# Entry
Amino acid sequence: MSTSPANLKLHTDHPADAQHEEALHTEQVKQFLQAHPDFFLTHEHLLTTLHLPQTNDGTLSLVDRQNELLRNKQSTLEQKLHELHSEAQANEYRALQLHRMAVHLVSATQPCLMLEALREHLCQSFDLSAALLYLDPDTATAQTIHRLCPQFDFENNIGSALTAAWASLNQTQQAHIPRSSNELRQILRRHSLPETGSSAIIPINALHSDERLGILLLVKRNPQGFNPDMGKLFLELVGELLAASLMRTTLFTTTPSAHDGEPYSSV
# Structure
């Protein structure tokens, strides 16, 4: 008669057979460990799951090794938790400063005041050595802003020597931490900024279109102030805020007043 699955189950569930099978497995484990005395050197993570007796003979027991591994693991987790907490605090600070910058930009009643508020807030809140704004002179928005704010220190005003350098940087497609280049070094030297510092390039794109308005170059003296491991979200948000503020300047056009012939601001 053939052995059915039910018969097999009943056979293996017999207490005597189960004890024999457990003893067999135990012996196999013992033989394996005896044949591979260095097994736990390459599988230390298994030590934290074992239940072991204490030893008082002065030797380093597996229990001691377990405790050492657990302490190391705890230390690593505590360090990671500290890093996450620090990053969370930094992100909270950035979010708060970004909000305050948005309030300043929205509150500005003139484009020149808006640009000055932007540069001052960026430099003070984020410990920048410089915040350099380049606007593409071929865009209508840039032409309007230059007309309304001729006294503002745009990078376009520094002469033709760096026109090619800025035009090259203006080709960037997304916010990033740039590598050192001849164009970037030329710009840094022009502003007496150290070439050993760090910088971030933020493209300024018109909202709801692909028009490139220009770029914002943020510079820090600290070589690690901006690094490639940083997230780009903060930089992208700054770019969007600036783009919205620049587009808003089209509302600051001066028009003869119907009452007294004086120019007025439409905002």
Remarks:
- The helical segments are 5-12, 15-35, 62-107, 111-125, 140-148, 163-169, 182-190, 233-248.
- The CA atoms of residues 147 and 215 lie 19 Å apart.
- Residues 127-253 form a domain with the Beta-Lactamase fold (CATH 3.30.450).
